[in-house]
Amino acid sequence: MDEIEALSSIYGEDWCVVDEDEKIYCIKINDCLDQPKWTLCLQVILPPGYPTAEPPIYQLNAPWLRGQDYMELANSLEEIYVQNLGESILYLWVEKIRDVLIEKAQSSDPEPDIKKTSEEVDEDDGADFLLDYQPIQEDPIKMLNYITSESQEGDEERPSIHHGDPITDRRSTFQAHLAPVVTPRQVKRVLEKLYENKKIASATHNIYAYRIYCEDKQTFLQDCEDDGETAAGGRLLHLMQILNVHNVLVVVSRWYGGILLGPDRFKHINNCARNVLVEYNYVPSVEESSKQAGKSKKIRKDNKKRTEH
């Protein structure tokens, strides 16, 4: 609470309380120019274990924040968290973002054009989701080539691939595929193996995201791919960040059935992904989560009673 009070005083009107009970806050950050060119909105949820045991859950909202820009900024925020474990970090996050915006304002780079590539175009695609991601490469396999090309290691064993149950809605079908991965080379090999399947290769979109925990650097190597379904990869990666899953690749194939689904398509993509993560024990099921939450609530109540007595 001391941190929140300090941030509210420092940033004034740019600091916004979205939900005080749930500890959801939002801050508008700009490049400090009289007429800001680069702006970004950082929304954070402070979990019960913050700052001693849990990091903030965050979303980044900026129409220009895509591709390399997004990944570099997200990795910087995670590095700040790792370097300051157990400490309040929101001020450090805000000022790091501000430094990035100032650097962009001082550069001659124009704001990038944002184009949609999905066959479905929604007016509210960016409105209902704050973390909007655009792939760097058109070919999902090419995206990983530059990461693995410098590696002199021999071929690593290809991880086993698991397939989730499909979801069908208005003739469109969605199916998730999952593989445990610990290196970018393994990600590449899994993708290559999946695309050998003619049915998967013929999917309208093969959206994927992966998160690999680097023990030596205590940080994450992560990326995602829309494969033409604008913002879907970013949404999938964000789901995996919220669930805090490690060392896993999730691919969601979509076969378009000719009927526009609107925002429902993102719901099906994330539901497929979550279902397969639950099935293979990367996250607890809803029932297990409810039991754990109930136990935690009971412990807090018991501790409160003892304190009052």
From TrEMBL:
Compositionally skewed regions (Basic residues) per UniProt: 294-309
SMART domains (UniProt xref): RWD (SM00591)
One Gene Ontology CC term in the entry: cytoplasm
Domain of life, per lineage: Eukaryota
Protein's cellular compartments: Cytoplasm
Keywords recorded for this protein, A-Z: Cytoplasm, Repressor, Stress response, Translation regulation
Region (Disordered): 287-309
Domain RWD intervals: 2-104
InterPro entries cross-referenced by the UniProt entry: Impact, Impact_N, Impact_N_sf, Ribosomal_Su5_D2-typ_SF, RWD_dom, UBQ-conjugating_enzyme/RWD, UPF0029_Impact_CS
Gene Ontology biological-process annotations: GCN2-mediated signaling; regulation of translational initiation
Coiled coil feature spans: none
Any Pfam family: RWD
Quaternary structure and interacting proteins, as annotated: Interacts with GCN1; prevents the interaction of GCN1 with EIF2AK4/GCN2 and inhibits EIF2AK4/GCN2 kinase activity. Interaction with RPL39; this interaction occurs in a GCN1-independent manner. Associates with ribosomes; this interaction occurs in a GCN1-independent manner. Associates with actin; this interaction occurs in a GCN1-independent manner.
Family: Belongs to the IMPACT family.
Protein name: Impact RWD domain protein
